[in-house]
Amino acid sequence: MIEYRLNGPASQERIRIRLMAALRENRFPQSILIDGPVGIGKKALAMEIAQALQCTNPSVRPCGNCFGCKMATDTGVTDNWVVPMEAKEASARNAADVSAGSSAKTIQDFKQAYIEEITKNPYRVDIFSAGAVISVELIRTMTASFAMKGDRVRVVIIAEADRMNDSAANAFLKTLEEVPPNTYFILTTSSREKLLQTIRSRCLALHLPPLTDEEVRQEAIRVGGEEFDESTLTDDVIGLAVGSPGMALYYAEHAKNWSPLAVDFIEKSLSQDYTDLFFKLEDSGLEDPAIVNRFLEVLSFLITDLLRQQSGAPLRIPEATGSVNLERYPQVGASALEAALVSVQETMSRIASRRMAAVTCLQNLSLKLFEGYK
Ligand SMILES: [Zn+2]
Known about the structure:
InterPro entries: AAA+_ATPase, DNA_Rep/Repair_Clamp_Loader, P-loop_NTPase. By secondary structure, the protein is of the alpha/beta class.
């Protein structure tokens, strides 16, 4: 009997045991959907499964050495993936149509660069820009490649599948209705609800749980590489990450600026020292809506922690929370903090809708924050 070995953090062991049993018993579903929070290792698991399915070793899979394993892990085999791309990348010419010697980048070149980034660090949360989508052309390129596949097992990972636009989703649904033999689709998403219900219902759903704080630390260090500075993984950063190594790495890079800025945001909104706060916001480089909303997540965490502090509950980000001085504002109690939290959430959806410049939204938020309690 063939033994399957999928590796990963202990918190996600239960899902892997289930998958290994399906592989061993030769009843692996042809389409699965892995969902769960951002940066917890959905793509990493998808890659492990893809390799195990394509491996031809007679005793242990994946072996890492056979032709199937090599094809599964070769970042140059762009047919293994569908990834979101920016419009200008997705409309680049196909490699097959470019004359030899041309230096123009092809759609496969752009795709390969993304696949290399994912392979280097599958937890990374900022590989694709906010505007990148899976267009119908990308789905058609994928289905066209089936004609050339031959008999070997084919696995296609559709990363961040919720970024399929309507025409892509409808085209993909047709493929899902009749999946070719020896072909498997692995979809990953952190926004399951954005996927067509008809696509969801045709995939086996697997919900990947977050990691423990200790696993987050270990995984972040492991994929961070040699140049990664471990001292940036403070307790606050681990607290902000909520079980996601990808978010830990993201906040390790940004939190040292964002935590003090969030503390300032609260204190200066209360003292109505807007001029100074507005200068700081301008200097912060916060501009891209997706990034501004990540900063607002830090602000939400801080306000939630201030609420916890009032009720004596344990804190998620003790360092930042401990540095907020609320003593001068005894009127700011639980109801003021709860109202502030609602204002932050409202600002996040306003920023996501992109109707107004993100920085203007931040300035409006500071004017509104703790309204009636200043
Ligand atoms: Zn193998």
